Amino acid sequence: MRLFPKFLKNLISKSHLSASAADWPRALRDYMARKRRLPKSTPLSDVRFVVFDSETSGLDLSKNRLLSIAGVAMSGPEVQLDDAFEAMVAQADVGGANAAVVHGLVSNDLSGGLAEDEAAARFLAFAGDAVLVAHHAAFDIQMLRKAIAGHRGASVWNPTIDTAQLAERVEVGPMRSSRATGTKQSGAYRLDSLVERYAIDLAERHTAAGDALATALLFQRLLKKAERRGIHTLGDLLAR
Q: For position 19, what pLDDT does the model report?
């Protein structure tokens, strides 16, 4: 008899979640339905990565908004240029001179874009169960979470790799990195610095698509260094 109230509680909870999900963008429902994690023993050559970048109206998570998002898939270390995503976000009151200078975006680019939650949902559906990769990934992940925050129960659940942290890890070692020692990360691990150091020559930088591709090419080089350090599986790569 004690189990019956618990059964009812679970039933009500599931029914409420279904009702909430019915109002989500379809792409978000598709993404959440595919939730699964790859075994940590998966060889890196068998992992699908999605390397992405977002352009925003500023760096303050509390008030700034998503302007565009782009990603390119990798099959292990191979960049898949035919498996890519890009979306502009409709922000009617953003896109003046400052945005144009920083991002190359103008009001016309943004006014014809998708709603913020729809753009994030479509990107996540494109990513599916891939491992997400970004430079200073925490910021981009928080922007995605903020974009879908109005849809109760939805989340960004993918494992994530930060190429700034990975670069420091494979170049100086985990025990000597700024995260391990508590020191502030130097400018040597900014994306611009790493792109120059690894001789990545791209004309279309400082757009979401350009920075996503630059980060993918950087990640490709970092994976080679990681392999020489004995990092061969997804679990090895995700270890801190």
A: 53
- What is the topology classification, in CATH, of domain 43-238? Nucleotidyltransferase; domain 5 (3.30.420)
In the 8-state DSSP scheme, what is residue 183?
Answer: P
Residue with tokens 């392999």: 227
pLDDT 10s digits, 15-67: 444 556 778 999 999 999 989 889 999 999 999 999 999 999 877 777 788 99
For 196, half-sphere exposure in the C-beta direction (CA atoms, 13 angstrom radius) is: 7
Please compute the mean of the pLDDT values over residues 216-238 and round it to a whole number: 97
pLDDT by residue (tens digit) across 109-135?
555 789 999 999 999 999 999 999 999
The Cα–Cα gap between 121 and 109 comes to 19
Find out whether 154 and 32 touch, Cβ atoms under 8 Å: yes
Whole-structure pTM over 0.70, yes or no?
Answer: yes
CA quadruple 18, 68, 127, 138: dihedral sign: negative
3-state secondary structure of 162: strand
List of E strands, the chain = 48-56, 66-75, 78-88, 131-134, 160-162
Q: Which residues contact 141 (CB under 8 A, 6 or more apart)?
A: 132, 134, 156, 160
Question: If 0-12 CB within 10 Å is exposed, 13-18 middle and 19+ buried, where does residue 126 land?
Answer: buried
Distance CA 60, CA 74 (A): 30
Q: Which two tokens stand for residue 50?
A: 């999605």
> What integer pLDDT is reported at residue 181 of this predicted model?
45
Residue 4's pLDDT is what?
52
